[in-house]
Amino acid sequence: MTVDPAALAWADHDAVLFDLDGVVTPTAEVHMRAWAEMFNAFLADDTVTGGGDRSPYTDDDYFAHVDGKPRFDGVRDFLRARGIDLPEGGPEDSADVQTVHGLGNRKNDAFNAVLERDGVTAYPGSVLLLDHLRDLGLPLAVVSSSANAPSVLEAAGLADRFETVVSGAVAAELGLPGKPAPDTFVHAATVLGTTPERAVVLEDAVSGVRAGASGGFALVIGVDRGAGAAVLTDAGAHLVVADLAELVPGEDR
Ligand SMILES: O=P(O)(O)OC[C@H]1O[C@@H](O)[C@H](O)[C@@H](O)[C@@H]1O
Q1: Could you give the ipTM of this predicted complex?
Q2: What's its EC (predicted)?
Q3: Helix (H, G, I), strand (E, B), or coil: what is residue 90?
Q4: Does the beta carbon of 68 sit less than 6 angstroms from any atom of ligand 1?
Q5: By CB atoms within 10 Å of each CB, which of 118, 165, 186, 237 scores lowest?
Q6: Domain check: are 168 and 96 in the same one?
Q7: What's this model's pTM, rounded to 2 decimal places?
């Protein structure tokens, strides 16, 4: 399917489902840096046992194993890729314990420290699209793997723009598998009173694009913030943009 981004018939759809980090707000970068800080300290720590490949963690590792997934899935999938065996631990593990949950909690502390220090400013092009869709009266949702989605939306001043927020915490509560499984997007469509065949998904991560494609959504729009347009297309995006302003009719680009 070839789609002209500026000529999208938004009104033909019932709802629009936005990933958050990297789509609405530039917080994918904050997640990326927090992961890199945590994994590199872990990989360089001689006291850690569990074998595996301890070479430094790179952005390629992020895009291949971590991007867009719920926090502890990201930890597990990266460790598995490196052949490193760590105990699972539990949600209450402190951030200095060498378990899957301890490492995830350490990354979360790093993420929240940056959020508190720097705040969040949404991408201007994304706010333009949100304004346009509000003018059209389309119901909107955020579907994010992040348990921090509500605080990021609050910090960006956008909490009132979305009818529902399916965050990592909501998914865990409802027992929904995270991206790349389609369940969180399907749940958001249901909450907005529609079905995947009538809803649009916007995603910057391969795992999220896969979720939209395997869920049978009418339109899956990839947002290239570093994953690569070809990679997003291969994962199932119907079209790929670099900025959400490209999706607003009449916006100068
Ligand atoms: O904030 P949390 O709960 O750790 O969420 C983790 C993930 O949240 C996603 O929204 C990001 O795109 C991921 O790359 C990130 O790792």
Answers
A1: 0.96
A2: 5.4.2.6
A3: coil
A4: yes
A5: 118
A6: no
A7: 0.89
* Domain containing residue 182: CATH number: 3.40.50.1000
Specify the DSSP class assigned to residue 14.
Answer: S
* Count of structural domains within the chain: 2
Which ranges of the chain have pLDDT less than 50? none
For the chain, how long is the longest CA-to-CA vector? Answer: 58
Task: Output the CA–CA distances (angstroms, integers) from residue 60 to 32, 65, 66, 108, in the order listed.
Answer: 11, 8, 10, 20
Calculate the CA 202 to chain-centre distance.
10
Q: Does ligand 1 come within 6 angstroms of the Cβ of 30? A: no
205-223, pLDDT tens digit by residue? Answer: 999 999 999 999 999 999 9
What is the per-residue DSSP string for 24-74? TBTHHHHHHHHHHHHHHHHHH-TT--S-S--SPP-HHHIIIIITTS-HHHH
Residues 6+ apart with CB under 8 A from 112: 148
- The residue range of the domain holding 53 is 29-118
| Residue 239 dihedral angles phi and psi, to the nearest 5° | -150, 160
What tokens appear for 178 in the block?
């995270």
> 188 by DSSP, 3-state: which?
helix
**What are the tens digits of pLDDT across the range 92-144?**
999 999 999 999 999 999 999 989 999 999 999 999 999 999 999 999 999 99
Query: Is cis: bond before 180, omega within 30 of 0?
Result: yes
| Separation between Cα atoms, residue 201 and residue 192, nearest integer Å | 13
